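re: ur question from earlier - yeah i can do the single chain one, its not a big deal. heres the input i used so u can compare w yours
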Amino acid sequence: MAEPFRGVIKLDVRDSVPDWGPYELKRAPEGSPNILVVLYDDTGLAAWSPYGGGINMPTLDRLADNGVAYAQWHTTALCSPTRSTFLTGRNHHVNRSAAITEGSNGFPGAAGRLPAECATIGQILQDNGYSTFWIGKNHNVPEEDISAGGSRSEWPLAKGFDRFYGFLGGETNNWYPDLVEDNRFIEPPYGPDEGYHLSKDLADQALRMLRDQHSATPSKPWYMWFCPGANHAPHHAPEDYIAKYKGKFDDGYEAYREWVLARMIERGVMPDGTELTPLNPMPEDIANEVDFVRPWAELNTDERKLFARMAEVFAGFSEYTDVQVGRIVDYLEQTGQLDNTLIFYCADNGASGEGSPNGSVNENKFFNGYPDELSENMQYLDTLGSAETYNHYPTGWAAAFSTPFPMFKRYAQYSGGTCDPLVIHWPRGIKAKGEMRHQYHHSTDIVPTILDVTGLEMPKVYRGVDQYPLNGVSMRYSFDKADAPTKKERQYYAMLGTRGLWQDGWKASALHAPISGKGHFDQDQWELFHVDEDRAESRNLAAEHPEKLQELIDVWFKEAEANFVLPLDDRTAVEQLGNARPQAEPPRSRYIYYPDTAPVPEGAAVNVRGRSYKILADVKVTSETEGVIFAHGSRFGGHTLFVKDHKLHYVYNFLGIKPEQTFVSKELEPGNHTLGVEFIREGSGEHGESTGTAKLYVDDQVVAEGPMRAQVGKFTLSGDGLCVGFDSADPVSRSYPPGFPFKGGEILGVGVDVGDDVYLDLEREAAAAVARD
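and the output i got, formated as tokens:
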């Protein structure tokens, strides 16, 4: 209820007494700290130097040496779901975030939109006198909302953040990112040829926001969520940072596991006697073959060279980004703000196995179900990490950086998927320095900790809606009490068909591989680990303690019921990313696009995947005409229709694999033309890709044709939208320079048809439209 007016109102203002109380904005409690949350992506516990890892993290080392590091802090095993817990303090299914937003489904725990019953930490802090900033990755906006005309209801500014600068999808090209500032799409401020890298840009923007804040309202506390693209693929880094790690990983991932476990034990991250788990711990009939780890001894010389180089690039990417975070920390120290800034520095899930057993120069192959080929990857050995690649290391490094646990990202039943680094630094509020904490905690505990430290509470009713209770607990009790008992009672896990439950130092884990498509969850076997004594989850005690195992399984089902977890979904990535979901526009078979418009993101653009399609453009051609008519995708997958050297070209770039599939006409005559291409899908290839025939048209004449293969998965997980009259800065084809804007003529419009109409009928309609113009 609003505060009543306590002033005096008379006819004349001179006789009246004002009362600002009901109208004054709330102020944060006296002495409230600033809050900086640094959330990396895809990083296992054994990667970073404070935990004994081989990747030098100078900023994180500095914070750990003057704060506390947690050795049993867990996440959901996947990015969007974990990030949702950072927003609300509730479990990810309560947030309707069962998996990544691109895999949302029409069930209560998987719908991909935060319910009104889950107010965010941004909203609570903003309402209580904090400035709120979100920098970097989002991945909590439904894919169908990521467009110029999409709903802004799930965008950061609608979730309690004053400012946003970053990218909305799950990943982006660090050299050519897809950027959003506040509520609008923007282009990067400069290019990689001028020194651009996303990590640097994000730090620049963070510093600008903090400087503006400090200049205008220096007494007002702030909350900043800083989410770099690192360490998610693509792994991109300046060459001088990659060079720092030359030769550091030449002994292979199995040797790294032995080396790093000894260091983890020495530093007190792991207890004495901790044992390594097998590289491939799951039974062959249950395991997903795309997650298999190839033994280092079985690799040939080229494979070892390639795999080691991929780890070097990853390490350089991670350290370079940490140095950028260091610029923010330095600024806070220089301005006297560091002492009362509570910093959480952490990661959202275990190391990523999405590079497949062989690594990849184009991570999007994973999401298309298409394998990598060594000879192709070796061509990029010296350019890994540059704009030429969209690279990801092999599964062996995912296992190594998740030492000593089984498996990695996506495997929620194992700590390899969920146990992540977390360092907390707050000089004014934490006396301990350089200490390790072993209390069991989870990403749902970050919001309650922030509320505890700021003296605020999550309201029971917010904006008229009864709120779900917080699932997390505050970690503040552990800041200066290393031996304090864990206040967390239990935590369920469920991700992509995997599931587990931790309670009172015991853990039940279902034997099931994610995105394996195997189903039959009722037939799952369960393992039992006493993690208080076996942190690595190396000894299955199911046979010795069947009653304990059944107790935990029963609790898992109770938690599943209470948190909207069911149904379980282990369908493949291609299937889940192809889920039908409500769109802002009704379904149709014909799409019309025009020049002088912003790129249309893939989630809102016409879907030509796995089907026949036709593209027709009404174009006025002159002797000076050249440039892109239509383009969708990037150098790592896409297709483009363009005029060059007076000829019409159509290029389908299949997952960045050379050579590009190219179809070219004879020289075009000046005049009004309908220019287009038709792809007739005739079947599927060995790996599910579409196969068929492409026909290039000038008016009603076929001017080139031939066999073609096309992707069934997306051109990118996010970004690189559909363009008319230009291509993006990272172009689909190497046949033309970045952008390659259309000039010397006029594009009236471009139609894309995915229906059953015959191309020549559509061409006659297009020709008639030109005649009417």
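The longest strand covers residues 613-634. not sure if urs matches, ping me
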